[in-house]
Design a protein that fits this description.
By secondary structure, this protein is of the alpha/beta class. Helices cover about 30% and strands about 20% of the residues. Strand 3, helix 4 and strand 4 form a beta-alpha-beta unit.
């Protein structure tokens, strides 16, 4: 099972140290998601990381940084709506319904499905699925190794997510 970290959208003190701690503690991938940051902030942050660390990062904004820093991949979102013709990296996107998962997962290396549990970082953002719905989606092959659980995910929920058939667990608010 992939264990994925997502940066907080806000600017954090000592973010480089945080990213290094994430990788040292066993996370496989980090999604650099800074919707309020300009490209120079992201560039300076990436310059402070070594090539091995950068090779585990998927960028949510400024796809040109993927090429500049040999990052792992690019996440499709409202700011990046498609990949360039020559793109060869990891492809990811977010889904907020099982129907979206059905529609998109075959075209991506993995998709996030959220919110699985009540969000930690977004107050009032409640789980969109019952455990029974998730079990059925797993039995039907909708949830599989290409679907990553997001939303309220903490380490103590990983065994449940494995049992439900998720291929990964992504955390933002559950990381200290």
């Amino acid at each position: 099972m992939k264990i994925i970290a997502i940066t907080k959208p806000s600017f954090e003190d000592n973010e480089v140290a945080f990213i290094r701690r994430v990788f040292e503690s066993g996370f496989d991938i980090l999604h650099l998601r800074k919707p309020d940051a300009d490209i120079e902030y992201c560039r300076e942050l990436l310059k402070k990381l070594n090539p091995e660390e950068r090779s585990k990062i998927i960028i949510h904004d400024y796809p040109e940084l993927y090429y500049e820093f040999s990052l792992k991949g690019i996440h499709i979102n409202k700011n990046i709506v498609k990949y360039s013709e020559d793109y060869q990296g990891f492809k990811t996107r977010s889904c907020h319904s099982l129907e979206e998962v059905r529609l998109y997962k075959d075209d991506f290396d993995y998709v996030f499905l959220s919110p699985i549990f009540d969000s930690i970082s977004k107050k009032g953002y409640k789980s969109a699925f019952t455990e029974e719905e998730l079990k059925k989606a797993s039995q039907d092959g909708v949830i599989d190794e290409k679907v990553v659980a997001l939303g309220g995910v903490t380490f103590d929920k990983i065994s449940l997510l494995k049992d439900l058939g998720f291929g990964g667990a992504a955390m933002m608010g559950g990381i200290n």
